[in-house]
Amino acid sequence: MTIKTSKKTAVDVNAIRRLIKKHKKNDLMFAALGMFVIASLTITLIILFLDLVLDGYPKFTLDFFTNFPSRRAARAGILSAWVGSSLVLLVTFFVAVPLGIAAGIYLEEYAKKNWISDIIEINVSNLAGVPSIIYGLLALGLFVYSFGLGQSILTAGLTLALLMLPIVIVSTREAIRAIPIHIREAAYAVGATKWQVVLHHVVQYSYGGILTGVIIGMARAIGETAPVITIGALTFIAFLPPSPVSIDPPFLNFAWLNAGFTVLPIQMFNWISRPQHAFHINAAATGAVIIILTAMMNGFAIKLRYNVRKKIKW
After folding, report:
1. What letter does residue 251 receive in the DSSP assignment?
2. What is the structure's pLDDT at 25?
3. CATH number of the domain at 61-311, please?
4. What sequence ranges are listed for the domain ABC transmembrane type-1 (predicted)?
5. For a tag site, which of 37, 130, 149, 164 has the least CB within 10 Å?
């Protein structure tokens, strides 16, 4: 009887070893396949980017950034486009970031866990994946026609803020969820209120993840074309909006919010649609600028998150 049990045990052990070996082999094959796909996509992206840079390299001069668009390709620049993009992103930042962070904190720390909060959470997550053209159509009917804001920088900023808001909310909630519960319990143990715990502990420890989501959202907004085209952004503009800062008190000027505008993706679209090859060179240079700005913002987000995590000791 003992011999039979030993043989059965030996057979079971061998079967388990073969099963483990098979699973390890499958894991290795899956990892190799994943690395191959990632490497292929990365190499393809690098090749396309280098091709874009080589095509637009002759236009990487100071005049290209300080000249207005022109019907002559040699004199055309992106001054009005990058100024317009900066002002639109300024509105987007001041609208989406406070609302998104506040909404994320409320939903995660204060909202009661019931069917209403579940519906809100599902809808916020779904909105993060809605195509950008839908936001453009929504903004066209809401901001342009219903509110009468017109085809202005304010309208474009609010449109991109709607696009960015779900990203900020989701990233804020995920950053807050990553905070260990014992930090909250320790703060409550010394007599801190709910608001003090959230403000001085939860937000302080999670602000790295929150800012990472904000920067990634801004990086997405800078390259969006469909929403701003839908609300009627200009494709050719040879003037700058009024300056946001004035020399007279109160030293702020809000007339620029109602000014016409264009942005870098639209300027690129305008040039690439023309038949002359010289304009295609301008478009390639503009595309390279957009990609470089997006890569820099994403790189800054990764660096920021790394520095914050390195400083935090749970």
Report:
1. -
2. 85
3. 1.10.3720.10
4. 82-302
5. 37
Apex CA 109: angle with CA 105 and CA 113, to 5°? 120
Helix, strand and coil content of the chain, in percent to the nearest 5, comes to: 75, 0, 20
Q: Which two tokens stand for residue 27?
A: 């894991």
Burial of 211 (0-12, 13-18, 19+ CB in 10 A): buried
| Dist CA 22 CA 26 (whole Å) | 6
The C-alpha atoms of residue 209 and residue 170 are separated, in whole angstroms, by 11
pLDDT in tens, 65-94: 988 888 888 888 898 889 988 899 999 999
Which residues, 6+ apart, have CB-to-CB distance to 97 below 8 Å? Answer: 168, 214
Distance separating alpha carbons of residues 186 and 189, to the nearest angstrom: 5
